[in-house]
Design a protein that fits this description.
- It is a single chain.
- The protein has about 240 residues and is of the alpha+beta class.
- About 55% of the residues lie in helices and about 15% in strands.
- The protein folds into 2 domains: about 150 residues, GAF domain (Beta-Lactamase), CATH 3.30.450; about 60 residues, Winged helix-like DNA-binding domain superfamily/Winged helix DNA-binding domain (Arc Repressor Mutant, subunit A, Orthogonal Bundle), CATH 1.10.10.10.
- Strands 2-1-5-4-3 form a 5-stranded antiparallel beta sheet.
- The radius of gyration is 18 Å and the shape is elongated.
């Protein structure tokens, strides 16, 4: 099992916030999210990202072949932890694959492939696009409460980055989108400043608060920020 440096988590969150949409696309952000998750989550051996579209589920990014193979086995059977996490919008844990009899014996196949435990977390990206972040470990019962909490926090940051990238890809005019992105960043920075003043917190903590509100209310980060700025200006 790989060792992970806990200080990497803060760096990873900051890296997600610094993604420049004009220099990458949705596929690039997906790959970056998978690599960062594998780097910061204790016990992670391989990571993949499942996206569910109208035509079905696909693995959009992965850090190892075994993760890809086990994902695709779920798609073939239309059952498995990543599909359940994506469909139910909850975290699905498989503490010991060899002892898990759900999903038509998928756990036994995962154990035979060398993965002892699995964690799949819901990854909402947009109204028509959602999925799951899948974390594979090569030993059983490796994901404790602290790791699950860290993974859930990471997913909230990743979902914002992916939602922004998805929006960028869907925008027809590059110049028009770049203008909107600049305006979004400005209003988000304004909102962060307001929260920092009210809560006496750091910029990263203020961004985390905005992110949580965005996910909890199923609203875009910019809309949450704009509403806060407008309410403050009225007051």
């Amino acid at each position: 099992m790989k060792a992970h440096d806990p200080t990497d988590a803060a760096a990873a969150f900051a890296e997600l916030g610094r993604i420049k949409l004009g220099e990458t696309d949705l596929d690039g952000v997906l790959s970056q999210v998978a690599v960062l998750a594998a780097r910061i989550l204790p016990g992670a051996a391989q990571v993949s990202i499942t996206l569910v579209r109208e035509r079905g589920a696909v693995t959009a990014a992965h850090t190892g072949k075994v993760a890809l193979q086990l994902d695709e086995l779920q798609y073939e059977r239309a059952a498995g932890p990543c599909l359940e996490a994506a469909a139910t919008r909850v975290t699905v844990e498989v503490p010991d694959t060899a002892a898990d009899d759900r999903w038509d014996g998928w756990g036994a196949d995962a154990a035979e492939a060398g993965m002892g435990s699995v964690l799949s977390l819901s990854l909402p990206i947009g109204d028509a696009l959602h999925g799951a972040l899948n974390v594979y470990a090569d030993v059983p019962r490796v994901f404790g409460p602290a790791t699950i909490n860290l993974a859930q926090t990471f997913v909230r940051y990743a979902a914002v980055a992916l939602a922004n990238a998805h929006l960028y890809d869907a925008t027809a005019g590059l110049a028009r989108h770049m203008q909107a992105a600049m305006e979004s960043r400005a209003v988000i920075e304004q909102a962060k400043g307001i929260i920092m003043g009210e809560r006496r917190c750091t910029a990263d903590e203020a961004f985390a608060i905005l992110t949580r509100v965005s996910q909890d209310t199923n609203r875009k980060l910019r809309d949450v920020a704009a509403a806060l700025v407008e309410r403050t200006q009225r007051g």
